[in-house]
Each structure stands twice: as structure tokens, then as C-alpha cells.
Design goal:
Elements lengths: L1 H32 L8 H6 L2 H9 L7 H6 L1 E7 L2 E6 L14 H17 L6 E12 L10 E10 L3 E10 L4 E13 L1
Antiparallel strand pairs: 1-2, 2-4, 3-6, 4-5, 5-6
Length: 187
Amino acid sequence: MYMHVYCFAMENYLSSENVRAQWLAEEAEIRARLGAPGVVTLEQLRSLPGLEFFERMGRGELPSAPIGVIFDFIPVEWKKGRVVFQGTPRKAYYNPIGSVHGGYAATLLDSCLGCAVHSMLPEKTGYTTVELKVNYIRPLTDDTGPVRAEGKVISVGRQVGIAEGRIHDAAGKLYAFATTSCLIFPL
């Protein structure tokens, strides 16, 4: 019995280490393609449907997000209705009680959720977050390793977009989840 539990735990550990290594390799590959941080012009934003916006950003044809520099995270997957960001919690993001400040998780979730909504929008359409509800499950630390924040659209209408998302580590452990409501408007 104990040997079986030990073997399962060891197999799970090795599996999560493989996922972690894969995630870090993918991140390095994507970072090499991303453009310098910056802001697109209003005309560029107007001219692109949401998904194409992310595809062009991923190829380095548009600037990457400046906020990603501050919190060291990047988009690693994007498709219509689903966007994933990856970051690694660091000691620099700690609060005085010894864990990563909740604002780090909230920022990752706000980014992936808003971008998931954006990925569904046609050209000449914009969005902004009007509500973000975050639930924290366990603390992030500088030992957590890379985490992924995955945002998925629930619904996008003419005026409101709703999405949900989760932050998890390479072992699949859940750290936080959130929902958002976004206002959709013509640009």
C-alpha cells in the first residue's frame, strides 16, 4: 500500500517537473518572438479583429504589453474565446506577510479574461473590464514555479462579455479563479 502511494506521488512529481520544463521552454520560445513592450495606435486597434491582434502580437508584429514587463508574464496561447498567460511568482511580488500579493494573481486573471473577450471581438470594437471577482485558493510563493492563467469566454454579446479563468501550476494545483464582466463598445 505504502509503496503504491509512494510510486504514485513520485510519478506525479516527475510528471509535473516535465510539464514545468515544457512550460519554461515554450515561454522562452515565445519571448524570442515577441516585440518590444509598447502600445498600439488607435488606428491599429480599430483595424484588427481581436484574434488577429493576438496573432500579430505573437509574431512580434505588434508590441507586447508593458504590464508584462512589470510582472514578468506573457501570453503563451491564444485562440478565439481562450487566452493563456504564463508568469513566475517572485519574491519581489511579496506582501509583508510572506506570500505573493493577491494583486499579482488578480492582474494575471484580469489579463487573460479580458484578452479572451477581446479575442472574440470584430474589428472597430473595444472592451474594458467593469467587474473582476477573484477567489484565492492558496498562496503563491517564489517556490511555486511558473503558473498559467487561463481565461475562457462564457458569453460575448453586443455590449457585455463574460469570462471565467483559473490560475494553476505545472502539477495542476489551483491557486485562484475569477470571473469578469467587460463592457463592449465601438472604437
